[in-house]
């Protein structure tokens, strides 16, 4: 009868497994490591960590402001429709600069500044009842400029490897009005009536949204072209004062009027950009 040590209550088998395990474990690790190695026999390096992309742009802006009929109220609240005018500014060109930080492939944060040229034009139809002048029409009423500062959160739907990168963004804006005055024709009309005047516009906070695209010159190029259409919600208080000239012999008077003007421009940007990361 042959003696089989593997059949004695499995004791010998368990001892052999305890002996072979320390030997087989390093062998299995070596085999698996060699299987993962590249053609040269070395393990490939881990992929580099994702970088954060930055984009700087500068270019031209075409600004199309809103046209609106404004009803001016006498600041004494005695006349609630003392003067009515159509504010119809001409479209103007300006320039823009923006910076984008993309911490994620599909999301970015953008700061933008748009500096517009003087808006001129506009017609007015109305009357100044407080001053005692009926049916006075002031033509080409207003002249002003507007500078807009905006902050956006942008969403980029395509893979970052695509050369064409469309995006949509929403954010807030601050509009700073300056250089406001009556147009030359309006001042001439007032002077003919023996009046002088001063105009002012307040600043504005509002929302803004945009749709645009970055078009890269090549997969390995850092340069790009940007196109964007932007809507800016901007409402401001437009006020002016009217008084008689000191050279006249009439009794002195000073009247103030104010009304809400919805500037609400569309802005169209065409820019050159440079992107980098670190």
Automatic annotation (TrEMBL):
Instruction: State a GO cellular component annotated for this protein.
Output: outer membrane
Signal peptide per UniProt: 1-37
Q: Does the keyword Signal apply?
A: yes
| Keyword Signal part of the UniProt annotation | yes
Keywords, ordered alphabetically:
Signal
Q: Identify the InterPro entries for this entry.
A: OMP/PagP_B-barrel (IPR011250), OMPW (IPR005618)
Query: A GO term (biological process) for this protein?
Result: transmembrane transport
Origin: domain of life: Bacteria
| Gene3D superfamilies (alphabetical) | 2.40.160.20
What is the designated name of this protein?
A: Outer membrane protein W
Source species of the chain: Microbulbifer thermotolerans
Q: What is the lineage of its organism?
A: Bacteria, Pseudomonadati, Pseudomonadota, Gammaproteobacteria, Cellvibrionales
